[in-house]
Amino acid sequence: MENSDILRKTSKNEIINAIDQNSIDFWKTFSNFLDKDESLKKNPKFEISVKKEVSKIFTGMNHPIGNAFTRANFTEQQVYEKVSIYLNLAKQKNIPFIWWVGALSKPHNLGEILAKIGLIKDESPGMYLNLRDIDETKYKAALNRSKIKIEQILNPKEEKFWLDLCSTIFEMEEVKDEIDRMWRVCLKFCDAYLATYEGNPVGISMVFYGGGVAGIYNVGVHPDYRNRGIGTAITLAPTIQAKKKGYEISILMSSEIGFKVYSQIGFQECCKFNQYIYIPQPNEEK
């Protein structure tokens, strides 16, 4: 991203919109790279459709994180009809998916409509950090406390460590082959970080630059190594790098377990980011 595209305004509304735009840009970039990946395109349920009214990115994997609707732009008059059409398309494929709803989604009651028709709502705090206020001494203190080493992954060996740890942390071993293929695509356009303790992988994070901000994703620490400051360090590593690149705002969508860690770093909650999840049920009418 050019420096001229970096968000300089720090009003609450600008930041809230940037959180959503970062997610939208992430999925758009992902779809562009995904469309070139022949191994993923072999899945008969694979489908990409980026339209003005909505973007549909289906890897076809049997986990909602790999199938998404995003950037909805419906009118109030057509929203029920459009949602029904797209939901039926997903049902025909018999795959789980997430419908991402943020500040830029239209109409503004889209989430209520998705909940009414049976999708499961999952709410995450949207948080931001003004990088001018970042305290790098916290990073050094966290490194010293946890006795870890953090590096940006640059080779296949480090990538494998990152992927294996990601599946463990987020409990996705049952779909590991599919999720690995998905994250390998993401690692082509995101910067990923790996924390190691005595040579063993213990923490991960990832940053995507889009919407004028640095979006932090996939922050996680191995269950056996939590409460040692590793979460703080692995979150700060990409934010410090973003500051060096000239970015002024870092954003993320927090999990329940990560909220306290992010708050202690200096991230502030500014909104709620909603995901509406669909899981196919046995004998469900298609």
TrEMBL record:
<keyword id="KW-0012">Acyltransferase</keyword>
<dbReference type="InterPro" id="IPR000182">
    <property type="entry name" value="GNAT_dom"/>
</dbReference>
<keyword id="KW-0808">Transferase</keyword>
<protein>
    <submittedName>
        <fullName>GNAT family N-acetyltransferase</fullName>
        <ecNumber>2.3.1.-</ecNumber>
    </submittedName>
</protein>
<dbReference type="GO" id="GO:0016747">
    <property type="term" value="F:acyltransferase activity, transferring groups other than amino-acyl groups"/>
</dbReference>
<feature type="domain" description="N-acetyltransferase">
    <location>
        <begin position="129"/>
        <end position="284"/>
    </location>
</feature>
<dbReference type="InterPro" id="IPR016181">
    <property type="entry name" value="Acyl_CoA_acyltransferase"/>
</dbReference>
<dbReference type="Pfam" id="PF13508">
    <property type="entry name" value="Acetyltransf_7"/>
</dbReference>
